[in-house]
Amino acid sequence: MKIEHVAMYVNDLEAVRLFFIRFFGAVSNEMYHNPRTGLKSYFLSFEGGARLEIMTRPDLDDREKALLQTGYIHLAFSLGSRERVDELTAALREAGYAVVSGPRVTGDGFYESGILGPENNLIELTE
Description:
Blueprint: E1 6-9, H1 13-24, E2 27-28, E3 32-34, E4 39-45, E5 51-56, E6 74-78, H2 82-94, E7 98-105, E8 111-116, E9 122-126
Parallel strand pairs: 1-5, 6-9
Antiparallel strand pairs: 2-4, 3-4, 4-5, 7-8, 8-9
């Protein structure tokens, strides 16, 4: 069994799509639009087969996100090396995204950093 994809609602569909294309090499399909509900979505595919569905619609309930809350909390991307974690962390910081942790070795031995991506969604970069 494998997780087929993960989905998240966003406000600015195009900005989020371009973020994942630019920094994570995502490949996007064509936008799906349901004119009855206003839903618009893209599937983003990543190296290794992972997929992320990003969606928006006009009636979203946009609540403040807390870093420490129950439920789904972050997307983690394995970059293959500590050097790539350092490089992408620096590139995201330079592009104006907040680095909330790391790069560092965690207590359980992982090398990672945490970034607040578009709309303050937490992204974890690991080696």
